[in-house]
Amino acid sequence: MITCFSKKKIISLILIIFIILLIIIFFVSKKDVNQNVEGYLATTNEIKNTDESINTSIWQIQIPKINLIANISEGTTNEILNEFVGHFEETAKDNGNIGLAGHNRGYKVNYFENLKDLNKGDEIIYLYNGVQRKYVVDSNSIIKDTDWSKLENTTDNRITLITCVENQPEYRRCIQGIMVIDP
Asked: What are the distances in angstroms from CA 48 to CA 73, 130, 154?
C-alpha cells in the first residue's frame, strides 16, 4: 500500500510541475508577443494607438484648385524645402498667422509652383494636430524679399504662403488666406 501511495504522490507531483511549467510558458510567450507587437507599432506608422500620435500624425496643406497635397515640416532650410512645405518657425501652427514656404521651380519638389494661379476665394485646407481648417484666398501679391510684415502674428486666423518669383530674386509671391467658419 505504501508503494501505491508513493506512485500516486509522484504522479500528482509530476502533474503539478507540468501545470506550473505550462503556466510559466504561457505567460512568457504572452509577454514576448506583447513586446513584439509594441516593437512593431513603435517602428511603423500603420497603427497609431495613442491620442498624441494620432493628433500629430498629419501636418499637411491641400489646395484643391492646383491639385496640391503636401506634408509640412518645421523650418525653411533647403533640406526641408527639398522634401516638404516648410513652416516658418516664428509663426503660429494653429491660431494666428500660419506662415508656410515652398519651392516653385527647379528643385526636387516644387509644391508652390502653381500658387500664381490662385485667386481670391480659392480654398486652402490646413491639417494640424488632428484639426482641419479651411481658408479662402484673400490676396495674391508680390512683396520684397525683405518684407517680413506678412508673417507677423495676427489676432485673426490666417495662412500665409510664400514662394519665389521667377527671375526676380528680390521679390516673393505672397498668398494670404483667411479662415472660414463652416456653418
From this structure: 19, 13, 34
